[in-house]
Amino acid sequence: MVSKNTIEFRVWGKYALFTDPLTRVGGEKCSYHIPTYEALKGIAKSIYWKPTLVWLIDELRVLRRIRTQAKGVKPLEYGGGNTLAMYTYLTDVEYQVRAHFEWNEHRPELIGDRIDGKHYAMARRMLERGGRQDVFLGTRDCQAYVESCEFGAGAGALDKDGELGFGLMFHGFDYPDETGRPELYARFWRPVLCDGRLVFPRPEDCEYRKLIRTMTPKPFGMGSNLKAVTDEPDSAEVPA
Fold first, then answer.
1. Residues 6 or more apart from 89 whose CB is under 8 A from it?
2. Each residue of 184-213: pLDDT tens digit?
3. Secondary structure in 3-state letters for 77-115
4. Is residue 149 part of a domain?
5. What is the tally of structural domains in the chain?
6. What is the 3-state secondary structure (H, E, C) of 133-182?
7. Is 105 within the bounds of a domain?
8. Considering the domain boundaries, does residue 142 fall inside one?
């Protein structure tokens, strides 16, 4: 069953780097073989986002063969000097994604901004424009592009490959403004790709969690640091 306020989009790029944020500090970085929930949520937020709503990623479809490529890079060295590291990227990637938004119930001060028809129209419009912000596949050096699509349409390279498990994998973050708790947690799960498709559990259904640190949510106020959705233009020429 497709949820209310659902968008379906195709995202592709030359490189992708989906890393575990708990272990990526340091020289060497190696991408997961599939996108993380958090990375796809970031893409949905780049298409359209306001603190009034929360994007939930429902399903992923991998359209191209999973290939990796190692590259020598010079990461920023804050202590001075030169550093050479090896990053292992995914290369020539293409995915279909199905996602929907729900209201952020931990933002009661924004209840007046909960006009789903308007937000959904804005999300669709921004998707047709290729996103409201720049789109990346995991990290900023992996530029990506998005466009609207019909989820499941077309042939995929993994359509007949059966099941493929990836072990324990980072799912996403529990942010305090989405949970109501003044703490930041990392979630983990065990994904299994079935004929190129992956169904994501809801964040609250993930079994494994790790406390990162205490954190307080950023405050938002209508008319101060947040524009009401009713003040957004109705025409297709929506400013970025």
1. 15, 16, 17, 31, 68, 69, 70, 71, 142
2. 999 999 999 999 999 999 999 999 999 999
3. CCCCCCCCEEEEEEEEEEEEEEEEEEECCCCHHHHHHCC
4. yes
5. 1
6. CCCECCCCCCECEEEECCCCCCCCCCCCCCEEECCCEEEEEECHHHHCCC
7. yes
8. yes
